[in-house]
Request: fold
Amino acid sequence: MYKLTAFKPNGEKILDESFEAKNDAEAKELGKSMLEEKNLSETTHRCTSPAGKLLLFHV
Reply:
């Protein structure tokens, strides 16, 4: 399970979703798509792998 989280400038979570992917590359693309669909691609966000690897990060 991969984890996608987005935050408001004050640190409040506005997105906290888990999702499945075949590998890190697919998870990165799915995470980007999910953020774009919700108009959150320019907010602070991160996507992590089950091993804790940071796949997406934006401040």
Observations:
- Residues 31 and 37 are 10 Å apart (CA to CA).
- The longest helix spans residues 24-37.
- The beta strands are 2-7, 13-19, 44-48, 54-58.
- The chain is about 25% helix and 40% strand.
